[in-house]
Amino acid sequence: MRFLPIGCLLLLLAGCSVSKRMERTGKEVVAVYESLPDWERLPVRRITWEQAVSMAMEKNLELRKARGTIKQANRSARSVYTDMIPGVNLYASMTRALEDLARSPDSNAMSYNINVVFNIPSLTQLPYRIYSSQAELYATEKAYELKQREIVSKIWQHVRTADLDRRLHELDLASFKEEERKTAGELKEQEFREQSIDNWSKLTELLGTQSARWEILPESLPKLDRARYEREAVHLSPLVVTQYAIQLEAARMNKYQILMNYLPQINMSLYSPSLFSSTGGTYGGTFLDSSDTKLTTYASLSLDTKLTYWNQFRTAQDEYEYTKQELRAKLMDRRIQVGKVIKSCREFEEWKSWMKKRMAFEASRPISTAEQMLEKRRRNIDMEREILNQEKRKVEGEAALMIEYGIFSI
Q1: Which of 9, 149, 177, 335 has an alpha carbon within 20 to 30 A of 168's alpha carbon?
Q2: Side-chain-facing half-sphere of 9: CA atoms under 13 Å
């Protein structure tokens, strides 16, 4: 029972330690919050499309994490081979009477040992480990390429949408009557300012930096080659094909992993006596002399008398067939959706052309009164607004095509 107060004291000290540590960490969080930039005071930086993409490729957090995943997969692939490097173990110990602890230890109280351990993984499992690690690395690299497409598409969509929102805002201001501009105009300006701050926050997340009020010049954006997208829409992008192939291959390899249990396990290990030892002031050891170094080789085979592995294999085989069926359904849905986007973009361009002709016709009609002039101006603003709103929907479809196929520019 006398150890109970000591245990309580240790717990109390641990609690205080955590509390102080959390307090210090909390101060770091507060410092970060207080250092966040004020949007109004940030300098305005106008950059081109190429500069924005280059900045995102370097600083975007999602891409940086993806690059870290690739490095991790690379290390995992190398570990298949580094696991076969002999391990060296170092041991040190001291034996001493309690009454002698106050005095400096001498060599008689210390002992040291150095050993080498060399293990070779099962030879039957080694090819599978090599292939699976390489497949994982390949999958992470392709996922990174797809993430790059996604980030570029989002930046392009952001710039196009922001430009259309600005033009819609200008139309809204132009539609106000003289007596409405003081109140309604100021309210609309405030709404547009808040929307601009939200858009800036999203853009800084894509670019990976909050150091300025970034404005990407709309005129620097690449002009998309709509005709090429229509030609490519009948095919799958090679990168998309790879993504589906990886899913199918993962289901297939799951079957083989279970079948590996039917192969014999063949392992080898080498363990040396102490290469160097010192005990009680005496020295000894070996330098891998064949007489005192042992190589152990053993093999084992597990008989599936309970059909455990066989049942697992049948389940994995069924899952593989289900994956192929699901893949077919996904591909059909993808084909339909891409077709819809292509058709929608084509129909928008045809509709926009018709609307421009209608606006030109309306502009050519003669007017004789001020009321007719105001009505004509109102109809023109309404048609311009409708075109811009429909174009925002078209931009969403074009961004989806960019993720699917990349950028095809004229």
Answers
A1: 149
A2: 5
